Amino acid sequence: MVSRMAGAGVVMAAIATLGLTTAVSAQDNPPNEPTPQSTPQSIPPAHPSPQTTGQLTVVVDGLQTAEGRVCVKIFASGQGFPNGEEGMVRRECLTIAPPAPDQIGIPFTATFGDLPAGSYAIALYHDLNGDQQLNRGPFGIPSEGYGFSNNPASRTGPPNFGEASVLVVGSNTTIQVQLRYPG
To answer: How much is the pTM?
Structure first.
């Protein structure tokens, strides 16, 4: 019985050290010792609350020209990523402001607010002709610049959601996307 009491004391000390609360019954405590009192304390949640929102800033590097628009699609799941509509939570085609001569090579930046905390994958393309779709050549290879969050390595097809997903938490999350052009 002594080892059980000593073990319980160690556990209670550890719980008190961590600032946690416990429920102690009379049978857990030896008859001649007072029942320990616990003080409720606020413990921060392990995950952000679902109501938490923030903004995502996408910095696009590698634009070859200021003509056309940059179209950005934000997906909250793998369904539809990167070419479909399913799973997409935002889609915007943004005009590229002509840069001043001293600003050539400066990245294009787009900010999207009020995104609930979570994982997202971003697909974007440089819409040179203004038709709001990624144009492709005869073998399905993009004929306009394109890119994905996390800048996954090129291969025979687009990345999956997991390869391109980024975690949006806090008030502002910034990611960088490098455009790739055919040729």
So the answer is: 0.70
